[in-house]
Amino acid sequence: MFQDPGQKLKNLAKFLFYVIVILHVIGALILCGVLKSMGYGITGLFFVLLLIELLLAVLIGWLVSIGLYAFGELAEDTHASRRALERMEGKLTKEYTEG
Question: CA separation (Å) from 86 to 60, 80, 83, 93?
Fold first, then answer.
């Protein structure tokens, strides 16, 4: 469960991005249905609003997931740096005790 948290955070960020975009697309389709049922015709403004909603979906999904993805990258890089430092420490300790 606690192994490789950086990769898990990055996967969660990707998952959240797709969920947010899908939910916004569903919301846009529901909005289309509601507006159509209220008697509004399909006009150019209708398509512009739909396009704005879909662009906002991608933007919001990206904004939500980018921070989480970056934190996952930071966790992975920190873990790699710690492993490298431990290897160097082991080599220096071995050289110091032998020499």
Answer: 40, 10, 5, 10
